[in-house]
């Protein structure tokens, strides 16, 4: 996670220093990324001084230890007066709302708390809401959805120019903003066509998600029977959320660690918890995998998640979603029949980018391995795009308008759409074009 954050920030010409206890990791970061590096404990004042904390605008403490992250922020505040401090906290006890008073300047001076597990649990719920999309994220106050969809042979709009989709489905607000073909992501032109094997990113009004999926050859079945592999913070959070849904969902949790399974069983009221190996065919059969609508594999081991998802599909489960930290495994998902994945680094990096961006940026979502960003921002009167039609704006080739909201109402973006002050606009941008997007929006990556 720290690697991904450093990669994003250094790629946008920020002065970044990474600190890690593993000298080999630090060396690899300094060799691969445009960053400086220090080997040592981040919470030690002398290590922070060596890293340049006395001149830092921000510190992001994202080690595996909550306590180290908290102490690092305290030292950064008390000794070096670092203005902005972000800490990654995993323990649910630290995240409880009743203890939120803890993170005040006079107590524990942390400006922003990031919880990867909470972010991933929310991402998992979004995947289950749009089960046939391999990626999904909400924008514009939840009114617009970004959907990642794999184009297959039965897709009804194969070999159809994108400009014709507007004529064919005039009442549907679907807008294709990105296409990954042969592992290369690009922003499509109106004359481009879609082919089997393409992975597309499409914006749709939330109320049109089901119809949009159907247009691109995907079903939108309800998820009534769900198996969750892993009862850690993510799995437990998802199971609790499913229990609170108004519609009935029959969920079963599989957890290998007996103590963790007992904790989950005590915390859940309507969910059955099974203790055992999620790769076991016998245990999957006991969980009713053949009749399940989906399996969500969210253990802390990527290979277990991938293998369990493959086995569940082989046993008859309709949909498999798995959590993967290693992005090199993503290219294996489709050949192995895995329907969707969740990358905790991408969700957390997106949250951090949203926090640190300056100006009127309201949301940032990172796509793939930092291949592109989706940026939601309010249009300022000083912005070069204010008062212009979309067709008149000199957007880079890798940038497309995904959605626009005017006075709280969604507007389908077209060449003749006028961009006014106060509008909220969502742009898909390849990473190389992000600086130009910031210029057009009159926002900056600068912190202050």
Notes on the protein architecture:
The chain has 448 residues and is α/β, with parallel strands linked by helices. It has 3 domains: 2-115, Rossmann fold (3-Layer(aba) Sandwich), CATH 3.40.50; 225-342, Rossmann fold (3-Layer(aba) Sandwich); 347-441, Regulator of K+ conductance, C-terminal domain (Alpha-Beta Plaits), CATH 3.30.70. It is globular, with a radius of gyration of 23 Å. The longest helix has 14 residues, at 116-129. Strands 13-12-11-14-15-16 form a 6-stranded parallel β-sheet, with helices on both faces. It has helices at 2-11, 23-32, 45-50, 66-78, 92-95, 116-129, 162-168, 209-215, 233-243, 258-267, 281-286, 302-314, 330-333, 344-356, 434-441; strands at 17-20, 36-39, 58-61, 84-88, 112-114, 135-139, 144-150, 175-181, 184-186, 199-205, 225-229, 250-255, 272-275, 294-297, 320-323, 340-342, 361-367, 372-378, 399-406, 409-411, 424-430.
